[in-house]
Amino acid sequence: MRSQSNQDSPHILSVETATLAGSVALARGESIVAALAGDSGVSHSNTLLNDIDRLLSKAQVELSEIDLFAVATGPGSFTGLRIGIATVKGLAATLDRPCAGVPTLQAIALAAGPSSQSVALLPAGRGEVFAQLCSVTQDGLVTELDQATHISPQRLLEKYGTLESVLWCGEGAIANKALLKGEQIAPPVPVLATHVASLALRKFREQQLQHPDALQAIYVRPSDAELKTLE
Predict the structure, then answer these.
(1) H-helix or E-strand containing 104?
(2) What's domain 4-104+190-222's superfamily in CATH?
(3) Which of 159, 166, 158 is closest to 184 using CA atoms?
(4) pLDDT in tens, 23-48
(5) How many whole angstroms separate alpha carbon 108 and alpha carbon 105?
(6) Contact, 115 vs 136, CB < 8 A?
(7) How do 68-74 and 99-103 pair as beta strands?
(8) pTM (2 decimals)?
(9) CA separation for the pair 99, 44 (Å, rounded)
């Protein structure tokens, strides 16, 4: 049986492969024990397990000590999401541990800090972005104010440009800095997995965890291969 300290402050292994570089983090309750940013020039399939091993070695924690596995479930890179989710499913199933699937755009909004209106943006390829409007409280509660969508930067401004006091955040906001000129843009976050872990802890405390088999990616749009078949 897991100890009471594990129930109050679980060891959380967090994986984020939705972005190009990706990241991994280890948390003990609300504290981040260790974190590593990935390499945008190398496929997650070649680095993820090694990054997890390096992370655990750095923290001097055994894989068997992990109480909860967290993973960014998208939207984001199709290939990256599949690799991250499959890896977490495999590890969690082997150790018989629960999982927490965390929407990528929620983690991006949380990383930018408290705001009544945060537009979380992630590059979606072909110059377009994944976007979602969220609110973030001082204690880290993220509320989705609309549905995640796949949209062009021009339509993005049509949809959200009339809102007042908007905080634009994520790699998609930085990539479209010129278009968002004069707007408030949050600084980049190198290790998004730390915020995935924070949202996973909230799910843990609210008993909203999942069996590994229940993890599913949030794609928002069809893959490029699927789009080609429709052309």
Answers:
(1) helix 104-112
(2) ATPase, nucleotide binding domain (3.30.420.40)
(3) 166
(4) 999 999 999 999 999 988 888 888 99
(5) 5
(6) yes
(7) parallel
(8) 0.93
(9) 20
